[in-house]
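This follows on from our talk about sequence and fold. I would like you to pick a protein and set down its sequence and fold. Go ahead and set the record down below:
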Amino acid sequence: MGVVAKRSAMTFYSDPTDHYSHCVRIVLAEKGVTVKIENLKRSELYTNDISKELLELNPYGTIPTLVDRDLVLDVPIVMMEYLDERFPHPPLFSVYPVARAKSRTLIHRIKKEWFPVIDLILDPASSEEEKATARKGLADGLTSISDVVAEKPFFMSDELTVVDCCLAPILWRLPILGIELEGTKPRRNIQQYKERIFDQDSFQASLSEEEKLMNPEHTEYSEKELRLSRSGSAVSGKTPPGARPF
């Protein structure tokens, strides 16, 4: 993206129902970043002062968009990598080149294979046949990683990583996507992995009001006053056409 007049605080333009935005919100929360969240849906572009402000910063009007002083970013994975470098603790990428490469490969798979499936399922224009095929493909994909997520607390790691930040929005949206995993073991492994992520303060803090309503199985999280556990932090709160892919 480009540069803008210098600002004093970080601002994140986020769709409160969007899985792309949610990934970045989890990173912001995990890092304990003080950030102003401007909630804006694609349908609201050109209709209010927030959307006009976004369009001045980002002529494409893509959501999410991250603004940090004179820097404007409109690609989610670039935002997450930038935040991990700008705020090194806690690290969400490994310091080792091989491990970092593996993480980027996994993120690429999520970006190319799974996020488009969510977009298709949530698109009102998709046929029921297309949605059924997409649901099966995503369920099969999650089943394929069920043994991996059982090996460590987080995805191939003892600590939360950016891969988990990309997977968590998918897992949170399974109820509204109409996806249920088959097989006792895969379902159990994914369920336990979900619980470990959903129990993180950063994940709870990342949820928008709209997202709290997406997962009836975890309404206890929705009813809490969700705040970051780190002092000085502030995170508030279907991919619309034109939302920026990874």
